[in-house]
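A further point concerns the way the authors explain their paired sequence and structure data. The central task, working out the structure tokens from the amino acid sequence alone, is never made concrete. I therefore recommend that a typical entry be quoted early in the introduction. An entry of this sort, consisting of the sequence and the corresponding backbone structure tokens, reads as follows:
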Amino acid sequence: MLIKSWLKAVGSVLLAIAIFAPAQAQVFFRIGTGGTAGTYYPVGGMIANGVSQPGKIIVSAVASNGSVANVNGIMGGSLESGFSQSDVAYWAYTGTGTFEGKPKVQDLRLIATLYPESIHLVVRKGSGIKSVADLRGKRVSMDEPGSGTLVDVRMILGAYGMTDKDIDAEYLKPNQAGDKMRDGRLDAFFFVGGAPAGAIAELASSGVGIELVPLDSPEIKKLVAGQRFFTADSIPAGTYKGVGEVKTISVNAQWVTSAKQPDEVVYQITKGLFAPATQKALDAGHAKGKFITAQNAVKGAGIPFHPGAEKFYKEAGLIK
């Protein structure tokens, strides 16, 4: 009788522990993206929705200033992950390029290469601007501080022997630049992102005629030859209303994180990214969504994979 009473008491205690013990804490995982009128933000939102696991891992897309700001946010702890141009990620990891003279961001790790990002040079139709050289003395937005676009624009200007001082430089998000161009207060603006970019598509459809200036000159080809991340690219005709095919250059968009993030969390997120439902949503949700595949994810790495992502790619037979 005493044994039965004891067992009953123990059972009650165990039941109480099961009921009142706190559930396993949810993991919150932010993705630093870019401005809301660019490509990072909508793609980040689709990825966040696809890889979140209710009650376990909650992933959210956060608007930011772009690649450099995202890398700094990851290292500073204000972001768990972020999107970055492949050149910016490599420079941060190696302490070269725009990170020259700064401590190497040695904890930066890759989750996936996502899609190619085309460099857009947008001008008003009939402006007479036919090449980067024609920007001298013009009102030009180079994108905002902290963006990968700004880094690349300075390299492009440098290929022509120019700097910010050779143009009437402004540092605006693409939607702000589009508004100023619509009002006739800006001659040109640069943007690096997957085409179609929302701000440029909106501008092209608003009745303001635009043109995209080709980036295909001898100066650009020399720049590409000296950099490992730029590749020849083209923006197809009809991507933007009234604009034909334009030759340009591109870099890759990558999803990066810190080595300090738990392996299992990154593994589950990577697995979720390539789940059929997420892939279907990406295909339908944005023109660049079809590029986000497991096969493309392991291309052009530049920095080490996070162990959680690496585990998934090894299981999928994509890396050894």
